[in-house]
Amino acid sequence: MPTNNSKPQESRKGTTMTFFQITQHRSAIGLPQRTRGALKSLGLRRRMQTVFQPVTPNVAGMILRVKELVRVKERVLAGEGGS
Question: Which residues form the signal peptide (predicted)?
């Protein structure tokens, strides 16, 4: 059976990764616990806070759950240059 010897993208030198830049623009006061939990899972605690999350299906699903509360941009960040 073949094995997958690929390394995670973060550990490769000189690579670029794509992230979601997520900024919370509306408060979660009065919203269901499930919605507040999605914000917490994304790492958002207060209005105007910005976090970076990797582009994955799980993160995209959480963003869709709170799409009325956040603004999202896609950012490409370069990895470490190796010498």
Answer: none
